Amino acid sequence: MKNIYLLGATGSIGLQTIEIIEENPDDFNLVAISGYNQLDELIDIASRFSLRMISVKNEEDANVLKKVFTETTIVSGDEGLKELATLNPGDKDGILVNALVGMVGLRPTIEAIQIDRTILLANKETLVVGGHLIQELLEQHKSKLYPLDSEHNAIWQALNGEDLASVKRLIITASGGAFRDLSREELKHVTLKDALNHPNWSMGQKITIDSATMMNKGFELIEAAYLFHIDMDRIQPIIHRESIIHSMVEFNDNSIIAQMAQHDMRLPISYAMYYPKRTPGLTQPLDFGTIKELHFEEVDYERYPLLGLAIEAYQQGGSKRAVLNAANEIAVSLFLENKITFLDIENIVIDAVHNHKVIPNPSLEEIIAIDKEIKTQIRFEYDR
Ligand code: NDP
Ligand code: MG
Question: pTM higher than 0.85 for the full model?
Answer without folding.
Answer: yes
